[in-house]
Model the fold of this input.
Amino acid sequence: MQETTETPARPSPGIPESFVPCPRREVALLCGLALVLILAVNRQSLWIDEANTAASSSQGSLADWWRTLNEIGGSDLQMPGYMLYMWGWVKVAGNSEWALRAAGLIWLVPGLVAMASGFSRPIRRAGVMLVAVSNAFVWYYAGEARPYAMQLGASCLIFAALHRLGRDELSRRQQSLWLSGFLFGLVILCGSSLLGVIWSIGAVAAAFILIPRRRLLDLWKIGWLRLAETGLLLLALGIYYLWTLSVGARASGVAQTDWKTVVFVFYEQLGLAGLGPGRLELRQAGLETLHPYVLALTAYFLLLTIVAISGVRQALSLWPGKRVCAIALAVALPGLMLLGVGFATHFRVLGRHFTPLMPIWFGLLALGLAALWGRAGWMGKAAVASYMILSLCSCLSIRLAVRHERDDYRDAAQYAKLALRQNQAVWWNGSTEGARYYEVPLDGDGKEKNSAVPIINPSAESIARLKKPGVIIVSKPDIFDSAGALADYLARNHYRAAAKFPAFTIWQE
Done:
């Protein structure tokens, strides 16, 4: 049996013109967003997780890709859709830092355009665009070679589909189109990582709350085949994820979730991170690093609160209070599940793990900006302008400020290669994938000349068996020297810090 749709030649009388697709408008939004978000992509050094992405995606064949992915293990094995996409992307665009990071824009930009198109009023569409392109979280993860830009694009598409299917009078063709968008977004979200599956549960629950029962029946009639195919595909993904868990694939367990990490989720997602200290500084020194930035952070938080409250009021005027509460519960459940896992196990929940929540913030803040600009007089316009200025400052800080740079594997690798050319023995205490990406020759046995010895979470006994090095390159001891054996060796042998790069210290005799 074939699925059939009816395509009216003109919009039906009950459908506002603004809900009819407008190719010129969509193309303009697409081009504008792409131009702005391209600025977020940089050529800084790859950090640990990005080096893992590069290691698997740079393989010449799918067999080698799969072998490397299994060798890396961890959460990378639980990102099948993203990792497979990156393998194909590298064959077209190359594996430079910029190319690896730009891959996420292919998903992010169309997703944001779809979300903006889901709003009927031009001022609200503009609000979505302004909120998205001026959010420091978006700028940070649009410029990272990890699955978060893909997840954000898919989540925005899901949001738009639910919004349209739940509120608008749509033709049969439009219902079919938005159903396809919802299912496609769901598959991409689930395929991007195991965490995407958890958030997809909230999306499906929201669909049953938002979409009227009669329309659900109509969607089944016109899309039963697509629904069945999607169900089978998600079942296959579920079996795959169960297999990864059975072989021990897990996210890094270097820290646990506590109240500070919960606060950091909102701090990061709402765009404050660019106005505060860098991640590395915050990681090493804690909350004390916030003191020099208190004034800017407080001003931005107050403006953000004003916009958010206005947005919540608008949302309550659009939907009944009971439905808003039900949606909030459906969206909150995956987040509570993640936090529960984080508190119960050795796993630190961060803002990026809540990426699928971002469209909710975009929607609320866009409604708030539109209401303040249109109805609150000059004070509302002043609040909107101030909010936008600080948001853009946060984005530019994320992009340009030295304190927000990632782990500098490139300069550390250059230092290691220079030392090797000078016939010095070198120990490498950091990601081996990062070293290989920047072409540092490694020798696990320490027997090959002109090769660095990788030292990953060593014991005192294993260090004692190696030739004393002239240079030791150390990164993030909590990850790569968890027992403190290397730190003790450095102290006992009176090594001195010869140079520092972001997340690296170079020690010499």
